Amino acid sequence: MLPDIFKFFMKFSISRLLTIFVLFLTTWFCQAQNETNATLASTAAEPVSADDSRPLNKMDKLWCVITEDPVKESDPEEATVNAEFKLIVKVSRGFEQTVELDVKDKTLGQVKKELKRLLDENYYHDSHIDLKIRDRTKKPGTVFFYGKGARGNFIQLSPGQEVTLFEGLMQAGVTEFANLKKIVLDRKDPVSGVYKKTTYNVEDIKKNRTKDIPLQDEDRVEVPERSIMF
């Protein structure tokens, strides 16, 4: 007596068995590919929290997934901030309808909140959005120096380069009468856009470099002169 499993397969021709086998392999491969794509989609994007303090920039690339989208795909939808700081997002993979957001000076969290508002107003009921930054545009930064004790007007920060307050002062140059004990760093808050001044004693920083701080794009550094007593 042949086992039942052999009896079952003997009912089919060789060509039929080959077709069944090919279909099995195709189904297995597609399932494995979908799992791989889902893994890549979750790990390839730069993980950025909703309260990320850095505003979006021109040509930043984002990945967007709308959980309630009726058209399900393993790969997220890509959107790019254009030269006018506009972000255009499709409301669904199955439609050409889009929503447009002005993202100038806005963080990822602010953009996500605005996108949800626009989608819920016209297309969804309580949508859930997964919005991540896939690639940030890297641009040079600029730090400005002013005051009677400053020689240079500004320095450039190369993408990925860290320049500290002390290093920036040395690059820009200071006069012999510069008061390094009262250097004022004027830094803009990325959310409110308001500048806040903080005074640093760079003479102390020279002795203990652990007190030094990295400069950021659009920082403004005031270098006063010492009072000269005669």
Enumerate the strands of the largest sheet in spatial order, edge to edge or round the barrel.
7-6-10-8-9
Describe the main β-sheet briefly.
5 strands, mixed
Overall 3D form: elongated
Give the oligomeric state of the chains in this entry, treating copies of one chain as homo and distinct chains as hetero: single chain
Name of the CATH class of the domain at 141-222: Alpha Beta
Tell me the series of helices and strands, N- to C-terminal.
HHEEEEHEEEHEEHE
Number of helices: 5
Q: How many strands?
A: 10
Please give the alpha-carbon distance between the first and last residues: 118 Å
Q: Give the low-confidence spans.
A: 38-51
**Gyration radius, to the nearest Å?**
29 Å
Strand portion, in percent? 15-25%
* CATH architecture grouping of the domain at 141-222: Roll
How helical, in percent, are the residues? 25-40%
Mean pLDDT, as a whole number? 80
Structural class label: alpha+beta
According to CATH, the fold-level topology of the domain at 141-222 is Outer membrane lipoprotein wza fold like
